[in-house]
Amino acid sequence: MSLEELTLSPAILAAQVENKGHYFKYIDTNLHLYQVCDKDKNTYHKKSNDIMNYKFNPENDLVIKKWTSDISKSIRDSDLLMINVFSFLSHFCALYFIELCRNINPTAQILVGGIGAQKEFYNNANKEIMNLLAEKFDNTSSINFGELLFNNNYITDWQKDSGSDILDQYLVNLYPEKTGDTFNIENLSNKKEFDFSVYNIEEYEWKKHKSLPILSSYGCVRKCSFCDVLIYFPKYKFIDNDILINNIIDIIDETNISKFIFMDSLINGGLKIFEELLTKLANKKKSGEIPETFTWSSTYICRPPSIQLSRIHKLLKPAGADNLVIGVETGSDRIRYEMNKKHTNEDLLNELSAFSNEGVKANLLFFPAWPTETIEDFSETLNLYKNLEKYGHDGTIDGINLGSGGFALIDGTPIDKNKEEIGLEAGPTEFLWRCEQNMDLTYWETLRRRILASETAMYYGLPLTDEANYRRTIINNLETNIDIILNYVGNLLFDPMDVEKYLSTLHDVYQVSIDVVNSDQYTSSVQINTDSETFYFNCEPGITPINFSFTKPFGCDFQLDIQIKFDSRNECIWSNHPNGEYYSENGIYLDNIFINEKNITLDGFEQLSKQNFCNSAKLPLDFYEIVNKRCIPINSTITWNFPKNKGVFKFLWELINPELAKELEYVNINLKNAFEKFKL
Ligand code: B12
Ligand code: SF4
User: Would you put residue 231 in left (φ > 0), alpha (ψ -120 to 50) or beta?
Assistant: First the structure.
């Protein structure tokens, strides 16, 4: 689960319990695990993956022991334990906790809910799980997790649908006197829909701002063939816009937090109600009932251009839209059509162009290796990244997520039900499968495409926000399933991380534009030297925009010099500029520096440039402390060096984000080692 945002269901369950006059306590077991791991991300990821694995034995693990012992203390006195099984990945962990609860507090009633509780098992992947469960349970006839637990007397009851109504039935029987004064039902004048006071909000790893989850609809209007949302939410339902907006106003008042994340499958499932929501939010912001700082993010589906869509684009920003998450999945229109996702690359580019104009950000989700994906289809995804480059550079695309492998075959999804039609066969786990009409697409080929896709996206400067974590999950999948993978796919006969051959075929010409601000009274000159070309510019006093291009072949080192020469009559008198603005009267200042559409003026130029002065002996002692490299007081050369086997934008990303680059490098070493174990 995420450490950077809150899970919504506890806020809903808390309000429901408190509205009935009882006391509610929430333990975020995920956050607590992170704390027990001393906030070390590598240990935390390893342990999180361990506890999702049915074969893991927690008995001898000191971290897990400390974690469960802490949680045991908190649940000892509860009358009703509510376990939220978020997805199928949480089954083992939930089972482990249920056993713990039964031991620690045998009289408590245990309710299980969440989408993971309703997850059905019947594919091969789950035979493995069912075999393991057979050792534990007498009755394994049930096809879903909640029912399995219930039939084996592990729990008191389970949530069979997408709501939490069943809870009311059990709340009635609880002793009110145990709840304390604060939550006495008579004192409740205002019933809540959400209660966020039950979270330890300060403890989360907030990236920039704190945010709260919220919901405007249940279910989805689409039927993407890889997705099982419709099993849990067969009917699309939305919450009345006025009720939702009143809730938002109350929550902001209570928490002073004005950033929200809509947890809907899609915020724009119904265009009419979405346009109405945007209009009302924009009006409330304008009238001051909702503060100016109110922003939100959500999942969003692309649509073909229309007059209504253009109106919606214009309303997004005034209504507070900050970041919209779009399931693009692939760059092949053919595959997207097969997935039953009803939009094309052109629709996506049209939406992004509108977002770019309106100042709304997008986060794009992809996964490679759809069962029928040919190498040509995959190339279309790589080509799409090139077309997205400018939206990465101008900040419209704020993240690209490629998932932790490729296509996963989930029970009950439309593709699962129709798998015979395309010769798709389920394997021993969700990520292992075969497709008769596309036998070259093995799990190894899936991982090769996964890594090549992310390296290509980085080559074009697209921000891969969570790449290190996704690669950690790939490592864990490999390490925990070594025998299963070897049995199903065999040894690894090539290097899935070898991306150089492909990247060296990509475009390598970069356009640079710089505004040269000359404050001297004489004309200065700027000369650009690359290995093969020289460009000259005369810069009169004032602003001179200069443009040039350079070619940086992927496989070679490359150096570019920017030589700045002042007129021989120019004299820099250092003592005239005590505040360090040496350039302001007779020097040069470089501004608006772009490589392709990427603005590196404030972030990038400083890290990339080495500045050499023709006569450095003349520089004042404090020069380097107070002057940035864009300020040029005397004749000098600025050098850009790009290493071989690296694209310009990946290299820039590493310079700008040294910590993240180091983390990715470390994860890559582990990924390489994990692959080694599968080679002959
Ligand atoms: C946001 C989201 C995420 C975020 C979560 C962020 C966060 N901090 O919460 C992130 C990106 C981390 C995430 C991760 C994953 N997700 Co997700 N995610 C969602 C999404 C879109 C919304 C979840 C949500 O908040 N819903 C709204 C809340 C209110 O609903 P709810 O949690 O179900 O709770 C309600 C009821 O179930 C009930 N309830 C809940 N708990 C309990 C307990 C009791 C006792 C009772 C009585 C009732 C009850 O009450 C609530 C009120 O109505 C859902 C799809 C959807 N529309 O729900 C997918 C979804 C849950 N995710 C899914 C998947 C597959 C995953 C991942 C496995 C993806 C991956 N490969 O990594 C991981 C799993 C993480 C994990 N450890 O389990 C699937 C689950 C499929 C399944 N059958 O298990 C879903 C359904 C989407 C899909 N079909 O693809 N996800
Ligand atoms: S749009 Fe998203 S939630 Fe809806 S069916 Fe498709 S993948 Fe599932």
Answer: alpha
Angle (nearest 5°) at CA 398 between 373 and 241:
95
DSSP string, 28-39: -HHHHHHHHTTT
Dihedral angle over CA of 119, 121, 125, 131, nearest 10: 120
Q: Give the N- to C-terminal CA distance of the chain in Å, as an integer.
A: 35
Close Cβ partners of 324 (under 8 Å, ≥ 6 residues apart): 267, 297, 298, 299, 300, 316, 355, 360, 361, 362, 363
- Which numbered ligand comes closest to the C-alpha of 412? 1
Which residues are within 8 A (CB) of 645 and not within 5 positions of it... i.e. 6 or more apart?
Answer: 500, 554, 555
Query: Which residues form the pocket of ligand 2, taking CB atoms under 6 Å from any ligand atom?
Result: 220, 222-224, 227, 229, 265-266, 301, 327
Per-residue pLDDT of 91-119, as tens digits, reads: 888 988 898 888 888 888 999 998 888 87
Cα(530)–Cα(68) distance, integer angstroms: 61
pTM confidence score: 0.90
Nearest CA owner, ligand 2 atom 6: 224
User: What would the pLDDT profile of 31-86 be if each residue is shown by its tens digit?
Assistant: 999 999 999 988 998 898 888 877 788 888 999 989 988 988 888 888 899 999 98
Contact 382, 338 (CB under 8 A): no
Ligand 1 and 80: CB distance under 6 A: no
The radius of gyration computed from the CA coordinates of the chain, to the nearest angstrom, equals 29
* Nearest ligand for residue 340 CA: 2
Nearest CA to ligand 1 atom 64: 87
Q: Report the candidate in 289, 287, 284, 295 with the shortest Cα–Cα distance to residue 258.
A: 295
Q: Of the candidates 397, 409, 396, 411, which has an alpha carbon nearest to the alpha carbon of residue 367?
A: 409
CATH of domain 509-646: 2.60.60.40
List the chain domain ranges: 9-174, 354-504+647-680, 509-646
SS3 600: coil
Residues in the chain: 680
Minimum-distance ligand 2 atom for the alpha carbon of 341 = 6
Please, what is the Cα angle at 676 between 675 and 678, to 5 degrees? 70
pLDDT tens per residue, range 134-167: 778 887 777 788 988 998 889 999 988 767 778 8
